[in-house]
GntR family transcriptional regulator (Ornithinicoccus hortensis), 247 residues
Amino acid sequence: MMASPTEEPDSALSRMPRQRLYEQIVQQLLRHVETRGLAPGDRLPPERDLAATLGVSRASISQALVALEVLGVVSVRHGDGAMLLDRRSEHQVLTALRSHQARLPEVIDARAAMEGTLARLAAVRRTDADLAAIDAALDKMEADIDAGARGVDGDKAFHAAITAAGHSPLLARLMAEISELIRETRLESLAQPGRPRESLAAHRRITEAIRAGDADGARVAMEDHIALVSDVALNREHDPGPHPEED
């Protein structure tokens, strides 16, 4: 018997999540791993080949690989491509991706609150040694970007140097507690086109405010930077469209 229009909807049913393009590509990559019998240490095909085979842009392939990198399924290195680190089922990966996407806004809020405060404190408390460590991190990130990479290690060193310069043991412990979540946002942000140099420029603005002893300026510069970090493809409503001709 058909349900009447006035009956309550079946509570056992729920809306299907809309699958984004990068999730579809992730599924295809996982199936490739499965059918080819790839093991940890094996490499995936180059991005250009994957884009041509799947009929999508390289930007979409890169987005899917970043999603897998965040979960520790692959490692992506400039010049080396993507290497498999861990084999997982499609269900495990997609569930983890959606969980990660759901908590991104909360992670960004926590970073803005803590790192904005640390930048403000650093402007007041920094020592010459702290400034030297910050400058060294900037140099490291710039050299990495100039070499064609994303500047991940330099970015990590910069934020660690700011935390140290704040001389707040409690905030430093709290930052350590969310270090893995910060790593995820770092990987996602620096994978965005043009983002490494944008982040480097933001780091320099933060540094100059700290060097000048401008506490409010340092806080605002850091909060602006974290807002930039939050603008990642995995957190947007729409994916880049299928344009296989793009490089």
